[in-house]
Design goal:
By secondary structure, the chain is mainly beta. Strands 2, 4, 5, 6, 9, 10 and 11 form a seven-stranded mixed sheet that branches. A four-stranded antiparallel sheet has the order 1-3-8-7, with no helix packed on it.
């Protein structure tokens, strides 16, 4: 049974930083091709934030967070991180970790999801 567990959310003032972590478990090693972060603000659709490829470390990012957010990984720990700097009130959302296992080709279709962690940025 695959589990993705996020942590690190919270309340921060605008301009501040947070680091989210996502620990994946339940399968043998090297079972995911990509891990990523998505977010959903109240009344809005879920949107892609950033993702990283396991084998190469290549990253993918939404324009809205480029230069402010950084995704990284620790393959040995099956853990992905999202360092969020210069946070803005519009970054307020539930952040979800996700894993893409069906194919090594890049796509926004992910197969497993975490429960989410709340990030609130006050102005």
């Amino acid at each position: 049974q695959v589990q993705l567990v996020e942590s690190g959310g919270g309340l921060v003032q605008a301009g501040g930083s947070l680091r989210l972590s996502c620990a994946a478990s339940g399968r043998t090693s090297s079972w995911w091709y990509y891990m990523g972060w998505f977010r959903q603000a109240p009344g809005k659709e879920r949107e892609f934030v950033q993702a990283i490829r396991r084998s190469t470390g290549n990253t993918y990012s939404a324009d809205s967070v480029k230069g402010r957010f950084t995704i990284s990984k620790d393959n040995a720990k099956n853990t992905v991180y999202l360092q969020m700097n210069s946070l803005k009130p519009e970054d307020t959302a539930v952040y979800y970790c996700a894993a893409r296992t069906r194919s090594s080709s890049w796509s926004l279709e992910f197969d497993y999801w975490g429960q989410g962690t709340q990030v609130t940025v006050s102005s």
